[in-house]
Amino acid sequence: MNRRGFLMCSAASIAASQAHVGWAAGLQTQLVTLVLTDLRRGVSIPHLEALCAELLAADLPFTCVLDPATGQEPGLKAFIADLVAKAPGVDLVAHAPDLNGLSGYFQSRHLQQQTAALRTWGTAEAQVVACMDLPKPTAPTGVRSAGVTLVLIEPARSAPVTSQTWPNGVIRFFGGTRLDLGARRFDLPKPDRAETQAFYYLSAATLAGQPVAVVAERMRAFASALRADEATGLSAVQRVADLPLRDSYGFQRFVALHLVRPEPSDKSGLAGYEAFLADLRAEGLVVSEGGLGGGFEPDRPFDYWAPLAGSDEVLAKVTRRARAGIVSTAQEPDRALAPGHSFAFGAVAGFDAQGVLWCPRIAIDSLAAATADLSAALRAPRDVVISVAPGALRPAFARHALLKQLRQLARDGVTEFVPLHRLVQIIAPRGAEIERQRRTMAALPEVRAPHARQATWHQALMEDAKIAWRYIEQNTVRETGLCPATINFSRSDGWVHETVTMWDVGSHINGLIAALDLGLLEQRDFERSVALLLRQIRGRESQGRLLPQGWIRVDRQKWGNADFDGSDAGRLLSALMNLERRTGMTDELRALVGSWDLDQIVIDGEVHSVTEGKLTSVHRSHSAHYAARAFRHWGIEVASPYEVAPGFSSYDDEMALLEVVSWIGPLGAEPLLLEALEQGMSAESDYLADVLFAAQLEDHRETGRFIAVSEGPIDVSPWFTYQGLQLDALERTWALDTVGYEPQYADPVFWRENLVVSSKAAFLWAAMRPHPYSDALLEFVRAKARTENGFASSIFSLSGRATQSYSDLNTNAIILQAIAHMMRAA
Q: Which H or E run includes 443?
């Protein structure tokens, strides 16, 4: 019996039979795994041949790590193919060097591609993957969906071996001994007997440092030492794919048994099917039934659909239509399913470019297939779908033979039978971004459905516009043209925020444009107001740079500080872009923007703020994408954190974007929807708007409360908050940031108590996502937030109390923008 067969037939075994001498002597047998790395273009084939010949002569199994997608020179590929053909003890493992830095979804995507390429090298199994070490490796949450149960972390230098067993059953090994057979001096390694597991990494890239004969001699000596240790029970050289089966790792394999239901006209097939189903139930074996059993082609019309983990919804046959990811049943093509995963059967596991999760399958369509293929399943420690065709169940003896095989599989100590949809839920990577993407997909048919509004809609909007305009009209300082950013209209402690930022000025300009379009402002008054504003924002020179100021006083001429805010500058540039388009003031505006030294605050494509002379990047912010598009309009090339799409498919682009947004922070309506009003919506912001709107709608239906998160003032400490959807939380979370990121406010209890409906966000959603929810949200804000002084900034979700005496320029200017947009659309 060979090593692998012995280990697999006794899943609790730790070593091969030679180990008994060592155990009898009270010694611990050390498992040894040999790994040959750096198999890439340019390696010396004669040196490889000599090394591998010595290993084969000593009957030592070993693993070859290669990058299957690159470096495929004919000589190396032919050598590997010949090696695999004549040496069953040789395993091929894909090298995915960056795997430790990828999220669960992209782990699965990357390994699916690597495994597909690996099959062209002559191997069908891919339970093991190798990658490089990183200081802070990500959790291997996505590798099991790609069929991988063991990850080798290749050490940069020799280090003690350690292992991790993750909740999804994946084992990850760190450390090992690096051997350089091509070095000037080579000494046989002295194994550390305290370690129960040893890895020896041999780099093919270093072999050419010595003549072929020397490499062969050194390998022969090392192999001889390993064989001697095996003979005395000190060690046992094992294949790497067998390691998960050691008792200490508690490996468990999941098998989904799927019976393909015969056609109603197939009487003999139905009889065999029902009889076999009764036998399975008597044995207590879990089974799924369905009409799809064959493999799936890339242009297939149908998939299966499994809901997200935690749901036991019946398995559905689905078709894909319109936008990739909008999934509906084959029988009801207009009804979207609950959030979940589309999956299919195939040889290569993992997510493909269309977001379909492929599951390895063993197809049983005859007695011969049952015997041969299930025997293979017993040997391979991987999750698998066993689909049984009606033809395999007609003869009674075939059913009995198959049942015997399945019974043996169920009792091997490592296998658990689960329903087909449950298998998908188990192996699919969990993650807040993945789940949010799937929930957004499920909501899209409704979110994007046409929505008609009543004839009185526009009349109500004009009433809203008059209220919003009241704030600007009544509070603008005539001499400067500036309007206070925030005002508390309470009689007892009323105060005025007498400074404005460039963000406020940008909003003011956009509010004036909207008021002109709505007929609330005469042309000559508009021109005078704009002229006054442009005079106030000429900027201030500091450290050799002329830049718009961080803030200016509303009651003084061009008086403010010497700082500069990169995010606020993006808002101002977007407003000037809107002004240029609306008025044709191209020469004047180009001269103004050209006078600023904006190129000096863009470093490596990132916009920076200047605070007390110190530059700080504002790239990690949701305003950075909005600002980048505005800067580009004025001829300054700026990078956007949102533009990270790999470009393989819409699924990949969306997942990459969601992960970046998670890194940035809570996602709110601004400046996400402002971009659409002023610049036209980019693909990135359009998708994120779907994500945020779908989450708000989902919350409303579960709780009955209205959600419209954004940034803005509140009338209690900390006075101004940034509120949004926290995309890296598995549970839907509305998080809150403050201007200074004070730690006392980073508290979920505080978030819940101070969650508010943003009045301006309600109008933005009404403009950008027409929907019954948007209409109801707007009615809620009208009822709560209309005041004599404009719209109140916020409405507290818990109490329903609006900031009645507290209003601001941004709220009312943006409401005017949104209304003008809706009027133009009408």
A: helix 432-447
> What are the structure tokens assigned to 429, written together?
């990577």
Pair of tokens at residue 667:
């996602």
**CA distances for 632 relative to 617, 625, 635, 639, 682, angstroms:** 17, 11, 5, 9, 14
**DSSP label at residue 99:** G
CB 196 within 8 Å of CB 190:
no
- Each residue of 641-684: pLDDT tens digit? 999 987 778 889 999 999 999 999 999 999 999 999 999 999 99
Determine the Cα–Cα distance for residues 194 and 720; give it in Å rounded to an integer. 59
What pLDDT, on a 0 to 100 scale, did the predictor assign at position 346? 78
Per DSSP (E only), the strands in 284-428 are 288-290, 302-307, 316-320, 327-329, 340-345, 350-351, 357-359, 361-364, 384-388, 415-417
Name the one residue in this structure whose structure tokens are 């030679």: 18
Q: How distant, in Å, are the alpha carbons of 330, 342, 355, 491 from that of 422?
A: 21, 13, 18, 62
Q: Which residues contact 440 (CB under 8 A, 6 or more apart)?
A: 690, 691, 694, 695
**For residue 128, which phi and psi values (nearest 5 degrees)?**
-125, 145
How far lies 37's CA from each of 78, 180, 231, in Å?
17, 11, 27
Question: Residue 575: which of 610, 529, 522 has the closest Cα?
Answer: 529
CA distance 465 to 570: 25
Distance from C-alpha of 811 to C-alpha of 698, rounded to nearest angstrom: 25
- What pLDDT does residue 124 have? 57
How far, in whole angstroms, is CA 684 from its chain's centroid? 14
CA distance 342 to 354: 9
Residue with tokens 């095996």: 230
Q: What one-letter code names the amino acid at 823?
A: M
Q: Is residue 100 pLDDT above 50, yes or no?
A: yes
Instruction: For CA atoms 767, 769, 771, 774, give the dihedral sign.
Output: negative
Q: Return the HEC string of 133-146.
A: CCCCCCCCCCCHHH
Answer positive or negative: Cα dihedral of 415, 419, 421, 422: negative
Which tokens go with 387? 């689909």
230 phi and psi angles, rounded to 5 deg: -65, -40
| pLDDT tens digits, one per residue of 521-572 | 999 999 999 999 999 999 999 999 999 999 999 999 888 899 999 999 999 9
- At residue 81, φ and ψ (nearest 5 deg) are -60, -45
Question: What's the token pair of residue 174?
Answer: 């760190």
pLDDT in tens, 246-264: 766 778 889 999 888 888 8
pTM, two decimals, is 0.89
Residue 66 structure tokens: 């290669």
Which residues sit opposite 257 in a β-bridge?
A: 386
Q: How far apart are the first and last CA of the chain?
A: 80
Q: Which two tokens stand for residue 647?
A: 């470009």
Report how far residue 376's alpha carbon sits from residue 228's, in angstroms, rounded to the nearest whole number. 32
